[in-house]
Structure formats: C-alpha cells, structure tokens
Specification:
The chain has 283 residues and is of the alpha/beta class. It contains eleven helices and ten strands.
C-alpha cells in the first residue's frame, strides 16, 4: 500500500504505516497505511464508526497506537507527545467543537498560537512577563492574517457561545491555523453546515493550501466536497483501509460503492470485513 520512496526525493510530509489501535479487546484501527504528500488535500472517508476520528487522534498523539508508525517530515513521531507534535507542525480541529464557549473568538484563537510560545497559556492569559511582549506580536499575526483570511473580523470580540454553528467551526479552524501548522487536520469541517456555510468552508480550505502553503488532511462525510477538493482519498471501513487513490478512482471502486456510497449490497461487504476481522481475532 505504501509507495516506494524515490531516491533523492523528499519523503511524503506524513507517513502512516501499519497503524493498529485497540480499545480493550476491540480494534479500532488495523494496519492502516497511507501517505500525505506535501501540498496535497487528502481526505479520509468511511462510514460511522470506521475509525476516522481514532486515526486523527492517533496521528495527533492523543491515542497511542498498539502497532505501526507515524512519520512526519521523515522523522518517526510515534512516541512524541501530543503538544510536541503540535509544535512540530501538526495542527487540528475537533469533530465536536472544542472551543471555550465563554471566551471571545480572539481569545480562543490565541490559545492555538500558544502552542509555540515559551510562556504557558495560563501565564499568557494573565498578561504577565514574557507573555505581555509576545502578546503584541501575537495580536498582529492573528488580526492581520487569520481573522482577515477567515472573514471573522466582525465577531472577533463576540463570545463563542453566541455564534452560529458554522461560525464556530470557522473559529476552530482559525485556532488550528494559529498553531501555524504544516498540516492542518480537519475532522468533519462542514458537518452540520448549510449549503452556503459549506461552500465558504470549501473555499477556505482551498485558500489555506493556495495562500498559506498548508497541507490539508480532512475527515469528511460530504462526498461532493471530498470529490471536489481532494487530491487523494483514503477509505476506511471497520478500521481498515479498503481503498485509496484519486477521487475518481475511489468513487469507481465497487467495494467503496458497497461500503459507503450507498450503491450496492452493504451487508455483503460488512460480512466480508467482519469475517476478516474475526479471522484476525478482532471481533
Ligand atoms: N475512547 C474510546 N474508547 C473506546 N472505544 C472508542 C474510543 N474512541 C473510539 N472508539 C471506538 O472506535 C471505533 C471507531 O470510532 P471513531 O470515532 O474513530 O469512528 P469515526 O469513523 O470517526 O465515526 P464517525 O463518522 O461517527 O465520526 C468505534 O467502534 C468507537 O466506538
Ligand atoms: Mg469521527
């Protein structure tokens, strides 16, 4: 499943190889492998419970895999703690919005930037010592780039709790961007959004790549969006990669059709995968 490295070529930005993750006796991921090329938009799709969020949590270091490896810029980060991965350039948002609802948009975004500051978040929030000096730089950076870019200027002082769901998702993206990531990981960026909000978010994702040079790895259920935006699609089902490739290739794959796109006998595929899982002592 892995592509052979070309001598002299730089490695893929992110390499997930044979990753296995178990909760108690249940395997959430089994031998998951794929590469994320620098500058690409890569999408992970799959039915509910396929393991997509677990995969994201493993890549960002919240879950420890029971097997396999994760490499970032060629460096093995499998055992690197989550905060350090964020500092290395892995920025992410969460499937269920994880903003501080009582805080303003601006303060939430600042928390993302603090992944890179020497002062800890709580000191920084008290505007003490070094934080005060870093604050000025921080404010410029955030105001001039991220807030303008995501068109959230009008709500910068609003408490997050007062915002629509679509705007909250945008603020979450702003906070992830404030980490100045090399890879931006978005878990269902348009879930629960109306059509206009979805189109805005799709445009922001394309612009993040074009204007900021950020590589994007996203989990998304919206097939139209996945097919329009992605360079590479990875399909997970029951914790295994059942297909990957160009959007058109994946869409044409009959197994994917059965598993996910609703055209065919899903039951048959489930039985097949369940049998494979049972054979591995998983189910
Ligand atoms: N912290 C956890 N403890 C135990 N089991 C978990 C945990 N997180 C996920 N799982 C299990 O792992 C499997 C994969 O779940 P996961 O949330 O990764 O799926 P998903 O593909 O993101 O689904 P969805 O599309 O609904 O978001 C499920 O069976 C889930 O119940
Ligand atoms: Mg999920």
């Amino acid at each position: 499943m892995e592509t052979k490295p070309i001598p002299g070529a730089s490695p893929p930005l992110l390499q997930v190889d044979g990753v296995t993750l178990a909760f108690g006796g249940v395997k959430a991921l089994s031998g998951v492998g794929f590469d994320v090329q620098s500058g690409s938009i890569t999408a992970v799709i799959g039915p509910n419970g396929a393991g997509k969020t677990s995969l994201f949590n493993t890549i960002s270091g919240f879950y420890k895999p029971t097997g396999g490896s994760i490499r970032f810029r060629g460096q093995d980060i499998t055992r690197v703690p989550a905060p350090q991965r964020a500092r290395l350039g892995l920025g992410r948002s969460f499937q269920n919005i994880a903003l501080f609802r009582g805080m303003t948009v601006l303060d939430n975004i600042k928390l993302g930037r603090h992944a890179h500051l020497k002062t800890n978040v709580f000191d920084a929030l008290l505007y003490m010592g070094r934080a005060r000096r870093e604050e000025a730089e921080l404010r410029r950076d955030i105001e001039e780039r991220i807030i303008d870019f995501l068109e959230i200027d009008h709500i910068r002082h609003a408490p997050v709790a007062a915002l629509s769901y679509g705007l909250q998702k945008r603020v979450e993206m702003a906070r992830a961007l404030a980490m100045q990531p090399e890879i931006l990981m978005l878990d269902e960026p348009v879930a629960g959004m109306n059509r206009e909000e979805t189109e805005d978010m799709a445009r922001f994702i394309l612009d993040v790549r074009a204007e900021w040079g950020v590589t994007v790895l996203m989990v998304e259920h919206d097939m139209g969006m996945v097919m329009d935006l992605s360079d590479h699609v990875v399909v997970l089902n029951f914790g295994q990669v059942i297909a990957q490739g160009l959007p058109a290739q994946v869409q044409a794959d009959p197994e994917v059709g059965r598993a996910y796109l609703g055209s065919g006998d899903v039951g048959e595929l489930r039985r097949k995968l369940q049998a494979a899982a049972t054979a591995q002592g998983v189910a």
